[in-house]
Amino acid sequence: MYASREDIGYDFGDDSKVRSKPVKPNPNIDGGWAWMIVLSSFLVHILIMGSQMALGILNMEWLEEFNQSRGLTAWVSSLSMGITLIVGPFIGLFISMCGCRTTAIIGGILNALGWILSAYASNVHYLFLTFGVTAGIGSGMVYLPAVVMVGQYFQKRRALAQGLSTTGTGFGAFLMTALLKYLCTEFGWRNAMFIQGAISLNLCVCGALMRPLSRKDLHEKYVVRSDSEENRAKALSHSTETIKSNGVLGEEPAKKEEATNEEVLGSVQPTELGGKSGIGRSMYGLRLFKTVSQLTITVRKGFALWYSSYFGAASLFTNRVFMAFVIWALFAYSSFVIPFIHLPEIVKQYNLSRQDNVFPLTSIIAIVHIFGKVILGIISDLPCISTWNVFLMANFTLVTCILTLPLMQTYVGLAVVCALIGFSSGYFSLMPVVTEDLVGTKHLANAYGIIICANGISALFGPPFAGWIYDITQKYDFSFYIAGLLYMVGIIFLLIQPCIQKNQPREKSSEEAQV
Hints:
single chain, mainly alpha, Growth Hormone, Chain: A, 0% strand, disordered C terminus
């Protein structure tokens, strides 16, 4: 039903045990609590991504308050948006150690703290630290777990679930824009940020809803997936045995170490029981030792998994298709952000402000973007449709629109192109699905962390680069042309690398057959 790792051309081999014995699927996978996870992720997208889309309201207030240049002031918003995504790989380490729920709750507190401290800003540089860095890191600590948890709870309806949850970005853009505009008008921007910080504490509630699946539940999910994709499992068998023999993921040593530590900790129990008669301090010390030891084991196992994903023999960076995906991500996100930043100026240049005030072009993108995510998710879940092919077609449509937009000089023409941009950019909901197909659920957190980090770099430098091109040429046309061409280079990488990667395992197998 999906474009599996075999279809795309990379075998990571994390689903190493394939059993033919039928297993009763867990009711919480593709149903039950899974829809609460979708609700939680939906609210996270409203509170984080929706708020970032509405930062233009606060940007005007900061310009008036601090009397700084537009370029310097704009870096506050760019830092917040960029850091939210750039910290993805490091948030993957937190998830490996603490889990999605704990990471999201800590991130919610940090995000709220960034908003509240920003209410007392005395200059723009203060906002760089409080809003750009503090709130940005907090947003990243909530955003990545929200995406990863949806991938863990869904198998058959992954694309639809991701599509529904990420529509919160579009809804949030409308809700948060209206809310911040009202709060700034009634209470001033400082009180507005303080109130928004209090609202952001609801991210902790969203994190609390991210109930982790047990190891048994995750194993059942893997078995169900393997039973439904027997051909892929056969293709993965050779690479899985290789990974096991090399000890890539370090699971067996970790298990042995855990067993050894459990024996040591088990020997502590009789000592505790014997000490009840007299030495209370010894009991407390032994309990503290047991807690610290268990925490140390958890941290070491989490770090080992994170380290092996990035730097081990089965590092994600050795996956050529995944690296092509990262290169694509470096150019893709800026092509979506640039129209939001520069369309108002284009409208002024073409004397279309009157029509745009009635129905802004950016609003057209945001509205259609919501439907695009849901519709593309439904299409990708059809049995006869490949998620990978839908993803590529949406990318081709978006890059065509980016290259075509400067040619449109009427409101109707711009509106049509903007609608297509909004719909085709709905492929963002497919990114976690494609990433999971590339590397598997086990490595989804670390892999998707790298992808959104690349998106963050694109969001951080894309709009300033487009503005720099405008300063040189005094036209926005070249900004869109260059962004479109770079975007096309990323798409070409996606097309070439799977073909090369697919041929390599076949060559190895033929050589082994000859031997």
